[in-house]
């Protein structure tokens, strides 16, 4: 018996799987060592123009090539070699110069060279001041890191906290906003940052501001000291205190545009318009009407101004799509608005400084700053939304005469070239009267205008630079009138320093002859005078119907004072949380210092629903207005019209004019004439009906004769002689029954038979049964004698067939 291996062909021995894996692992190790060596040998002084000249991994290089990134910008060519060598960096460059890639590529490369995996935890943390900028950074990271195996996450406010908690522990790279990041550090147990390798702060000077200072300090306390830190911004911070807080180790300051002649792109044309505060809205509307085919961003100082201008201009319909964006909107709405504006070719967006930093909106033609920025750095960031990546752009700054001198000095100090221009008088339009009309008709719009006015005035009052922002030199009354308000709302801080001094003075130090209390407005009793609580109640000031509304408005404004700085650190809330149930006359008693006892809210009168004005004097009637079905009952019913042959509309039951009727003659004569005309018309109709009936009878008779002739012709055929040869005793009816019937004639007769007439609603069933009985009687054929011969049978058959 041959051994089992004999007579069989042996399979070629391949390389074992373990050997293949080990070779691949060895090749990866060799590539990593070569990459590490190339990074160490990288010359920092060498001029690098393309990404292919940098020592990058194949996965990063493939991601850059797939995203169509080939040439380096100035900031990238200087910052990338330092960042790849794991140096701390302070990067400053003009807006739109490609700072995002300058820190994203080192994040991917440094973690790749350290063989970072999902089990190692968080390796890089990128902090952004706004949600929109964080989303933009995350999208760029996804594009260039598509071939890496790192896990990356986006942590911003406005999303589900529980979902973020579940995934946070598995992330290698996080892009976040300060507020939500700190929330996870405090509340998410599985989130650890002990092994963090890199910290990146985009728009660092904004993050180091007072608005985010507490959050950033708390985050830094959680992070390890040994790490690489990179700060990037268009206007970089150099304060020693800020750098010490971040624990920077010998940072390299990279600024590519400090030696440049201007701090803004050379392709940006910058102008300013000297516009008094009451004329700002008219100038803005006129500008938008003159640039309907452009893409425009309008910056304002507060979210309430953005809301008011958006709502009022939306009613004015300038002829261009309008959008608005501010920090108090929900996250889904903000994302939707930014995507709409990015995709549009011509539109206008009203926004706060939420979109002033880092956001890349494609092809923006104009940046309008309706309100003066707080400093020159804010101006630079705002105008940076246009003229990006060496494209052309234009920017216009609206300045009040009191702001001109101080602001121009600060812009000149920052090397910002700006020149004055004037709007054309022919294209100037005034919307003041239209806004007044809208505020009078719509109490909600008026309420928005009041809050916008208070918000703007407060933002001017709290500015640090008092050389630019001089609250006493603004025409606030004219500004309130230009917004359509009947008067400027009262604001607390405009009482002056004396009120603050009196309020903070101890009660014992007040003079004895002071007759009223500063805080409550009550009269102070004399030593021997006994006064009750009713006396104090009736002597209080501001006993008008607007006191509740005014206190709510001021309380809301105190809460929203820093809304744009803290918009991304806090959770989003609805824009208007206070809604007035019944609008009242706010102008009669707002300026009354003496105060009269309130007589209650005046009823609301609405015109135009019916013949008489509708008076809303209760909550039930006001609630009824919210129901469309109930509102229809109050509206005046319309009239139904018919059109004559000439196309002239008439009412369904239109009465003839009495004078025209009398001109035609007496009523009896017109009645007789009408009856005569109707009788003649009926006679003509009867003649037509009779002729039609005769024609139908004639056609029926002719068809009957044709059928009889066809029956006779069939009897005279060749088969007819066979009928004669009948045997005695045979029944002649049997033979007749065997004859073929003319089926075609029956089909024709069925087709010609008219359809059954539907019964009228006024006909009785008994009448219908009588008609059926009469028809049955007409169909009965009576034979006088029984058929004996063949001729008698033929006659009977012809009668039955007809």
UniProtKB/TrEMBL annotation:
Residues 49-77 form the DEAD-box RNA helicase Q domain. Residues 280-439 form the Helicase C-terminal domain. Residues 1-28, 498-535, 556-613, 683-802 are annotated as: Disordered. Its main location: nucleus. Residues 556-574, 783-794 have a biased composition (Acidic residues). It comes from the Eukaryota. This is ATP-dependent RNA helicase. It comes from Hyaloscypha hepaticicola.
């Amino acid at each position: 018996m041959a051994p089992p291996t004999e007579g069989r062909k042996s399979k070629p021995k391949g390389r074992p799987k373990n050997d293949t894996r080990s070779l691949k692992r060895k090749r990866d190790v060799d590539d990593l060592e070569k990459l590490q060596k190339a990074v160490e040998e990288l010359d920092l002084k060498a001029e690098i123009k393309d990404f292919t000249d940098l020592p990058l991994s194949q996965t990063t290089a493939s991601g850059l090539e797939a995203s169509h990134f080939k040439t380096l910008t100035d900031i990238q060519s200087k910052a990338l070699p330092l960042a790849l060598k794991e140096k701390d960096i302070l990067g400053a460059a003009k807006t739109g110069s490609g700072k995002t890639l300058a820190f994203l590529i080192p994040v991917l490369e440094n973690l790749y060279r350290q063989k970072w995996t999902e089990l190692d935890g968080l390796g890089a943390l990128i902090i952004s001041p706004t949600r929109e900028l964080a989303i933009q950074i995350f999208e760029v990271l996804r594009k260039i890191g598509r071939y890496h195996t790192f896990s990356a996450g986006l942590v911003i406010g406005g999303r589900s906290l529980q979902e973020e908690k579940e995934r946070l522990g598995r992330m290698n790279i996080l892009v976040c906003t300060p507020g939500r990041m700190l929330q996870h550090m405090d509340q998410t147990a599985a989130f650890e940052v002990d092994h963090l390798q890199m910290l990146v702060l985009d728009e660092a000077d904004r993050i180091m501001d007072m608005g985010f200072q507490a959050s950033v300090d708390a985050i830094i306390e959680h992070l390890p000291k040994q790490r690489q830190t990179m700060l990037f911004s268009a206007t970089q911070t150099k304060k020693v205190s800020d750098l010490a807080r971040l624990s920077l180790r010998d940072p390299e300051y990279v600024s590519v545009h400090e030696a440049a002649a201007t701090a803004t792109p050379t392709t940006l044309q910058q102008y300013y318009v000297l516009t008094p505060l009451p004329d700002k809205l008219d100038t803005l509307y006129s500008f938008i009407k003159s640039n309907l085919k452009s893409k425009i961003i309008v910056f304002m100082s507060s979210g309430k101004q953005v809301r008011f201008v958006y709502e009022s201009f939306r009613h004015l319909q300038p002829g261009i799509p309008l959008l608005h964006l501010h920090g108090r909107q929900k996250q889904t709405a903000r994302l939707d608005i930014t995507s709409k504006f990015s995709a549009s070719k011509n539109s206008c967006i009203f926004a706060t400084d939420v979109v002033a930093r880092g956001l890349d909106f494609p092809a923006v033609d104009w940046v309008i700053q309706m309100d003066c920025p707080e400093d020159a750095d804010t101006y630079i960031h705002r105008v940076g939304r246009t003229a990006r990546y060496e494209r052309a752009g234009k920017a216009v700054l609206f300045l009040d005469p009191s702001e001109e001198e101080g602001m121009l000095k600060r812009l000149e100090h920052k090397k910002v070239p700006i020149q004055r221009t004037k709007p054309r008088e022919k294209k100037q339009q005034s919307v003041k009267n239209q806004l007044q009309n809208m505020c009078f008709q719509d109490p909600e719009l008026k309420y928005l205008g009041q809050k916008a006015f208070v918000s703007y005035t407060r933002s001017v009052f709290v500015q640090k630079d008092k050389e630019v922002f001089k609250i006493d030199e603004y025409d606030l009354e004219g500004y309130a009138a230009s917004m359509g308000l009947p008067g400027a709302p009262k604001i607390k801080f405009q009482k002056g320093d004396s009120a603050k001094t009196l309020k903070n003075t101890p009660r014992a130090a007040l003079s004895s002859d002071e007759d009223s209390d500063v805080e409550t407005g009550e009269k102070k009793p004399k030593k021997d005078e006994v006064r009750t609580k009713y006396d104090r109640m009736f002597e209080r000031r501001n006993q008008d119907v607007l006191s509740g509304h005014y206190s709510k408005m001021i309380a809301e404004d105190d809460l929203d004072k820093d809304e744009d700085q803290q918009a991304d650190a806090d959770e989003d809330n609805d824009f208007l949380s206070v809604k007035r149930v019944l609008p009242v006359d706010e102008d009669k008693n707002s300026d009354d210092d003496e105060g009269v006892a309130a007589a209650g809210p005046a009823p609301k009168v609405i015109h135009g629903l019916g013949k008489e004005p509708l008076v809303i004097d209760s909550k039930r009637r006001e609630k009824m207005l919210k129901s469309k079905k109930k509102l229809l009952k109050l509206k005046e019913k319309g009239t139904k019209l018919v059109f004559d042959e000439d196309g002239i509309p008439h009412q369904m039951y239109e009465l003839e004019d009495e004078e025209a009727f009398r001109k035609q003659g007496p009523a009896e004569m017109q009645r007789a004439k009408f009856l005569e005309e109707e009788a003649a018309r009926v006679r003509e109709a009867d003649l037509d009906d009779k002729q039609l009936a005769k024609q139908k009878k004639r056609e029926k008779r002719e068809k009957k004769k044709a059928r009889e002739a066809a029956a006779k012709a069939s009897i005279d055929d060749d088969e007819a002689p066979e009928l004669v040869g009948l045997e005695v005793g045979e029944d002649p009816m049997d033979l007749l029954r065997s004859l073929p019937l003319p089926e075609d004639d029956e089909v024709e007769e069925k087709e010609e038979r008219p359809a059954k007439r539907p019964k009228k609603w006024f006909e009785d069933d008994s009448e219908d049964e009588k008609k059926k009985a009469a028809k049955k009687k007409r169909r009965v054929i009576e034979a006088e004698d029984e058929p004996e011969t063949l001729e008698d049978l033929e006659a009977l058959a012809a009668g039955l067939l007809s």
